[in-house]
Amino acid sequence: MNTPDTPPLFAAQEPIFPRRVTGAFRRFKWWIMAVTLGIYYLTPWIRWDRGPSLPDQAVLVDMANRRFYFFWIEIWPHEFYFVAGLLIMAGLGLFLFTSALGRVWCGYACPQTVWTDLFILVERWIEGDRNARVRLWKTKWDFRKWRLRLTKWLVWLLIAVSTGGAWVFYFTDAPRLAVELVTFTAHPVAYSTIAILTATTFLFGGFMREQVCIYMCPWPRIQGAMMDDDTLTVAYRDWRGEPRAKKRVEDTGDCIDCMACVNVCPMGIDIRDGQQMECITCALCIDACDDVMDKIGKPRGLIDYLALADEPAERAGDPPRPIWKHALRPRTVLYTALWSMIGFGLVFALFIRADIDLTVEPVRNPQFITMSDGSVRNTYNIRLRNKHGEARDFRISLTSESILRIRQEGSASNILTVPPDSTTQHRVYVIARPQDEAAHTERTGLRFWIEDTKNGERAHRDSLFNGKAN
Amino acid sequence: MTDKNQDIDQETGVETTGHDWDGIKELNNPLPRWWLWCFYLTIVWGIGYVIAYPAWPLVNGATAGLLGYSTRAEVATEIARFDDLNADLRTALAAADMTTLGEDQDLQRFAVAGGAAVFRANCSQCHGSGANGAKGYPNLLDDDWLWGGDIETIVYSIRHGIRNELDDDAHYSQMPAFGEILETEEISALVQHVRSLSGAEYDAGLAATGADLFLENCSDCHGETGLGDREQGAPNLADAIWLYGGDPATLEQTITYSRFGVMPPWGTRQVNAVAAYVHQLGGGE
């Protein structure tokens, strides 16, 4: 397709060799990396005692039994709205942070950024800093280059395997799976999941890096809609820096065109070109530039977190507005309000969850039947859920304005037994004798009561009894 | 346009593709080449997929694909797998002593669940999807049984059926059509007596005449007090349940022409399961 007349529509990936940098933001990012990776790798190993017959893993997504455990919280499939709520909160949280602080998610917390950072760290330990890496990239494939490359890839692979390996521990009992994995007795799904995640981690962290952010992730393109002139984002004070010049002559700006900001950039861009889609606002250029400004005796902040709305004031020599004035605006207040509303809603829902779940489904096919002695019988399917680790006995009874009797199918007792961590269905019959009012009334209200025989906890559900209308 | 770098957009500093539509030009921000390779890879994958899996529609069906994959075959395998899993339960159920079925919870659950499915497919046409019957077809939920409501009798009734000519062991009994034996007035009197047995409204004068007729003609099967006889499938006339209806007109019709409800024999397969299901519907004895 590349005839001499048309320019190429596709380009090779430009290699990027981010230089080592020190400073406040870099330190902050190391901390975030340690905490997030620590959470990721260690969480499955936290134990949490839930009593017999329930798993003792603090965080567990038990697909096979359709349960989600998070410390003291246990989510059943019908409570999936909690997960939906958390996802909505995550979405709104992202809106809030993006509108206030730009792409902080991308720059600090996104797994792609964290793992790439870790991979670059390994790369630097093995192959040296930027200049050494550029040289190595240009040299022929001799023994040394092979040795360095293979060492690096091996370490990357180890990180990748442990990343994929940690993932599967969230879905089943971690210590048991760990033993199964090393003795090759684990389920094939575990191995294939690890293999896929190892491949993606190795590829995305080692080779794709900024390509993932620029070409594969939809977020950079959506974020434009979240940001406005008051959003604090990483930017270059061109009114202070320009005209840039390596040689210090009169009328030159503070920028000495040392390329430090470009050399440290993991995305391979020049922040001095202004805001651009590729920038993940990792703030490493701020550290790099501040370092240079210190050396040449100029004030810090040539590259800084700043809001575009302050530009006219700063050009005129006035100080920027305080950060809280930028952060506090209708948009962020609205996002915060929505976010906390859903959060409070979820916490509230969590605390009012009933300990006994009782549902009553009246059988309406047929609505009622007549027994041989002329009494009228209705049937109800009662569902009882026991979230405890041991079996529970419930005594069932009913209250009603009319006289009604209750009987359980297949048993003379009024005790319903529910095994641990399960839901059971029981069929109960409610009977009105021919002389009782309910037998001749079209509808009679009634209330089923369930009482735990041990601790006396009660729950009730209302239903209707159908009699012969005429 | 011989030099590819010749055409640079002034606004953005990005080169254009060189295409020009009424003065509108297209910027050339080249895609990464790996993207292109991924695209080619999907094409290769697509071709491989078409070869490996069913793809091209033909007149009857589609090309089978080298792997011979089929969703129907997959379902069949799944069904066979579950059948295998339940093989023990099925054997156990076929040989089970039905009177003590409730002692084995697993077997009981298996029987009831399977019986419910079989019931819906084979029995619900007459007995209704809720098993509450219809006129002439017994309600299986109540405690009134023509031939008996214990599990073994239910098994027998389903296996051999009622009044059919296909199975020599079918329950059999026939009420005479009294229209050929008694006068119309006598039948009306009988109706009033029969109604009196179950506590319905009745004409006392006629019922007295009917009582004598009942003893003479009906009590052999239905019993002197009308409680019926399960040995002969003679309904209990003293309870609140009527198979065809307890109003005078229907009773008159029943006595005049008789009734002859038939149920086919269902053989032996899955009969235990259906019986277990029917027995636990609320009327089992």
List the helices and strands and how they pair.
The complex is a heterodimer of chains A (470) and B (285).
Chain A: E1 10-11, H1 24-42, E2 59-62, E3 67-70, E4 73-75, H2 81-101, H3 104-109, H4 111-127, H5 130-138, H6 143-169, H7 174-182, H8 188-208, H9 210-216, H10 219-223, E5 232-236, H11 238-241, H12 260-264, H13 284-296, E6 303-307, H14 311-315, H15 323-327, H16 330-351, E7 357-362, E8 369-370, E9 376-386, E10 392-400, E11 405-408, E12 415-418, E13 422-432, E14 443-452, E15 458-466
Antiparallel strand pairs in A: 2-3, 3-4, 5-6, 7-9, 8-9, 9-13, 10-12, 10-14, 11-13, 14-15
Chain B: E1 16-21, E2 24-27, E3 31-32, H1 33-52, H2 71-85, H3 87-95, H4 105-122, H5 124-127, H6 151-160, H7 184-197, H8 204-217, H9 219-222, H10 248-257, H11 271-279
Antiparallel strand pairs in B: 1-2
Keywords:
A: 470 residues, 15 strands, 41% helix, elongated, B: Cytochrome Bc1 Complex, Chain D, domain 2, two-stranded antiparallel sheet
Give the class of chain B from helix and strand content and strand pairing: mainly alpha
Q: Which chains have the largest interface?
A: A-B, 28 and 32 residues
Q: Output the number of helix runs of chain B.
A: 11
**Whole-Å distance between the termini of chain B?**
97 Å
Helix coverage percent of residues of chain B? 40-55%
- So what's the overall shape of chain B? elongated
What best-fitting shape of chain A do the alpha-carbon axes yield? elongated
Q: Evaluate the radius of gyration of chain A.
A: 33 Å
**What is the CATH class name of the domain at 124-279 in chain B?**
Mainly Alpha
Give the DSSP E fraction of chain A (strand runs of 2 or more residues). Answer: 15-25%
Query: What is the overall pLDDT average of chain A?
Result: 91
> Could you tell me the number of beta strands of chain B?
3
- Spatial strand arrangement across the major sheet of chain B: 1-2
Sheet-strand content of chain B, in percent, reads under 5%
The Rg value of chain B, from CA coordinates, equals 37 Å
Task: Give the mean pLDDT of chain B.
Answer: 91
Largest sheet of chain A: 5 strands, antiparallel
Count of distinct strands of chain A: 15
The major sheet of chain B is characterized as: 2 strands, antiparallel
Q: Low-confidence stretches of chain B at least 5 residues in length (pLDDT < 50)?
A: none
